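Let's inspect one such protein example.
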Amino acid sequence: MKTLSYKTATAKPSEVVRKWHLVDGEGMVVGRMATQIATILRGKHKPSYTPNIDTGDYVVVINADKVRFTGNKMQQKEYQRYSGYTGGQKKRTAQEMMDKFPERIVEKAVKGMLPKSKLGRAMFKKLFVYPGTEHPHTAQKPEALKF
């Protein structure tokens, strides 16, 4: 009598092969783009995905200043931050964020979709966002990614 003996393949950190992806954010909706980026950073697009190992790839986002929101979110959506002091809560609308720090809109959207742990912080470090078309990662030869 022969028994089935399937083994679950788990990725080891030393065996993970990472690729570089280039995402052009021009005209893309922030949330929809962020979900795809978060999936790639986590490594869920790979068959070797392991929940407790960082198997994700690197992502470079260009043209972050040309992303868009649907509806009236540019005027209505607010980003809050808190200094820790009394009266230290500050708010900015999405339009103000786009004018001052366009890359932070994409960063905050992706960061909110990653795990809130050491592993999530390690995944977030593989994201590089730039407001224009220029980026310093041409030596890594990132592949253009279409959604």
Observations:
- Residues 17-144 form a domain with the Ribosomal Protein L13p; Chain: A; fold (CATH 3.90.1180.10).
- The CA atoms of residues 117 and 123 lie 10 Å apart.
